Amino acid sequence: MTPGTWHTVKLLLFDIDGTLIRSHGAGRETMSLALTELFGTAGPIDDYKMSGKTDPRIITDLLLAAGFSLDEINSKLPDVYRLMTENGRIIFHQRDMQPCPGVLPLLESLRCRSNVTLGLVTGNIDGTAPLKLAAAGIDPAQFRLGAYGSDSLERNMLPGIAMQRATDLTGYQYTGNNTVVIGDTPADILCARAGRATAVAVASGWHATHTLARYQPDHLLENFNDTEKVLDILLNGTINREI
Ligand SMILES: [Mg+2]
Fold it and tell me: Would you state the pLDDT for residue 30?
């Protein structure tokens, strides 16, 4: 640890599914119900790999596969989002949503630090993201801003959106140099790169450490159990410029 660096202002952008919480397919269920109600089908949702993708990306892929046009899909996206949120209010609390290992102590250590701004970068839409967190016992209000699937179909756009929102909110200039993106999939690592931010990968979701390692994150963790070690990486870790 370099002396004095604790005071560097940091924006920490967390992914939700597989990083902060385990939702056991509850998101898939809320989407399936909404698509079936509005389109009469959820397409090939049972076989679709959702990991790391934004909700609009998933919805678009499923409905294109079911034969709908982009215009038909896009015109109903606001209704899909509304129904997913309504479904989530009921379904998330009926499922065994849990925080990932070490998440609660880590957030407790972070929330009292004045030099840290907590945010979200997630493929979830802005309606369901706070509901999912709350159902897993995580207060969504501690994340002062977020960039969501409902902001862009392309995950790689989200870190830049979040940095701009954090800058507008706090008055600090947030760029890739003082921003860390934390997630459990290769897509999280790639979107950190797109935002020129530090990429921290955690193998608490559906991807093993050896899989994540192939995408060369700046830091790779098995889980968040060692709070002090994770804090040091999040607050003092930097982009590995040799990668
Ligand atoms: Mg994830």
Answer: 96
